[in-house]
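Pasting as-is:
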Amino acid sequence: MRKNIKLKAHEQVNETISKIQEIVKIDSVRDVDNAAPGAPFGPGIRQSLDLFLEMAADLGMRTFADPEGRYGYAEIGPEGTEMIGILGHVDVVPVGELAQWTKAEPFSAEIVDDAIIGRGTLDDKGPMVMNLMAVKALIECGVEFNKRVRFIVGCAEETTWECMNAYSELEEMPATGYTPDANFPVIHAEKTIVRFDGKKTDVNNNFTLIADGAYNSVNDKAIYTGSKIAEVTAELEKLEATFEATDSAVIVKGKSAHAMATHLGVNAIYILATAMYNVGERSKAIDFIAEKMAGTFNGEKICGEVKDDVSGLLTLNIGWAKITETEESLGFDSRIPVLVDYNQIIETYKKTIESYGFEFVPFKTTEALYEPVDGPLVSTLLSVYREVTGDNETAPLTTGGGTYARAAKGTVAFGCVFGSYDMIDNMHQPNECLELRFIPMALEIYALAIYDLLNK
């Protein structure tokens, strides 16, 4: 049977590519300004959810969409039996600076250099479609689904998690399973994620620094307006920054990256605030950024070096900033090692930003996930990965990323990035892509993983 499953998985490659392109073409960035009944996060996200459920229904799966449009699910197997969950999402992070998409437009899903280009190809539409097609391979092999396999599809994973919060409250949770929203071979630990705001309203600035963005992304664009455009421009030249200047504004360009890997990005907020600080364009927010954040990735100017032997270093990122004439707000994201007391770290953050006159406003804390390497789920998934790839060296991983595995006990993150094979991993970055050469191997892994979980 295993040989047949592998062969059948490879037969799904062309259809998989086509379906990934179809769903990636939908702009599913959160858009609450255009929310509607049944589409609370915007029409594109709802369209993506409907399309995924339609793909599942075409395979004969039972489907359900939350009437309020926060989540949906599709399942196969006898009702009432044990549930294997495959958890993923159809919302995506913002595109960022469009000019940095040099391969193709972010929602074109064009194939360039043997890769599908587009926001969501890796995170998380592409992996969810691959898992759906893996189930199709099992169906066509005549596999008996003696348990349920349920795709749990969220619509606000990149922002508020309202989707999974609602699902957890209203629906049955899986007994075991995984989310294809990280790396192979398998993620057995995820850092605590803390998000908070720093806010100050008693200000009287004569300039602005605006940097739209998401908590969980290194910011790649910050805009200055004020009376010191010439001075700021000259300072940016000294800093060897990338920027554009007009008579009315200065636009600093950075490099986006996921907040779990801040060292891979260049934060435009830090660069611009440093230039402003150096030329005397000062405020409490500018002072804080220049003195405590600029030049750092790991919060070392606030809490020193924080790490553990399981999950590595702490990270701290400012994902967005709104500094105007009348208010100053900063959005923070921190990934805290799994064995570190996160409450102590939060208290340190609070004291530090309050020392600059800011109000500390907690936004969300997601506690760490830690599954033992020798447990039945991790060992099963790892075994399948090793069988298909022949990679017997790469150990189970840890991550600063926050996946849906945290929402369902007994689940972990499983793929789809093949880090050991130099797969391009540009989630949350320009030119996000899924290399075609990895699709057959991923389909084979997922089909066998689901098969083995059905037979445990």
